[in-house]
Amino acid sequence: MPTRVALVTGGTRGIGAAISVALRDAGYRVAANYGGNDEAARKFHEETGIPVYRFDVSDFAACRDGVARVEAEVGPIDILVNNAGITRDVTLHKMTPEQWRAVIATNLDSLFNVTRQVIEGMRARGFGRIVNISSINGQKGQVGQTNYAAAKAGVLGFTKALALENAGRGITVNAVAPGYIGTEMVRAVPQEVLEKKILPQIPTGRLGEPEEVARCVLFLVAEEAGWITGSTLTVNGGQYMI
Ligand code: CAA
Fold first, then answer.
1. What value does the mean pLDDT of the chain take?
2. CA of residue 141 to ligand 1 center, whole Å
3. How many Å lie between the centroid of ligand 1 and the Cα of residue 144?
4. Which CATH number fits domain 5-235: 3.20.20.70, 3.30.420.40, 3.40.50.300, 3.40.50.720?
């Protein structure tokens, strides 16, 4: 069997970096996309040897060009992990249109922008694994995150519809819904909110590790996982059971 090629969006930092490394360690050929932090991407590349590709997942034309570069240099994409995401946390009564749009564009439009570039190839070859990273807050809602929760709930609908469209073509489409993981994104939450409001709600009593999310992705992209499609794998330390 040929070595499968995987593209991880937002794959040079946080949960995405852990997913890129886990896939590489499992023997996949990995390309890691990133949006703008050249310094972090350079460091990630130096440490892991994984090739990095800068393009904006909120921009359809940029995704078309970026995916074409990946496919020319690494190979046709068999596995897509739509992981790139941002937060602009603020309550709705203070939210600006820019804060709304930025989160919807990067966290939800991106699924169309990137997946659209690879889905025809996957259908033609009769194999594909797509994993979309959602969030506990798309499942249960969260103060200060109407934009983020709407996008992450949208990810779940996208996942199920695309799973149905491609179930007969050897392509699975699943979501992973992480809880609070110890990344820069979560460390940006005000310390007091994190300690007083969030940590007490996590039955395991700690934040998750990026590698604990990466394990879920590895499970879903396996050759043997062909009968798992349209599902959401929840990994949140028991904070929200669905
Ligand atoms: N859980 C429960 N209550 C929370 C909360 C949380 N995570 N965050 C804020 N609140 C509460 C505040 O304590 C406050 O309550 P009181 O009125 O009783 O004091 C109320 O909500 C509103 O707070 P503010 O008036 O201060 O509202 P604000 O407009 O200034 O917004 C905030 C503050 C932006 C919501 C800020 O508190 C914040 O950033 N909270 C954290 C939000 C959060 O959890 N984001 C997740 C980021 S990590 C991530 O997104 C990854 C993932 O997928 C899990």
1. 97
2. 11
3. 5
4. 3.40.50.720
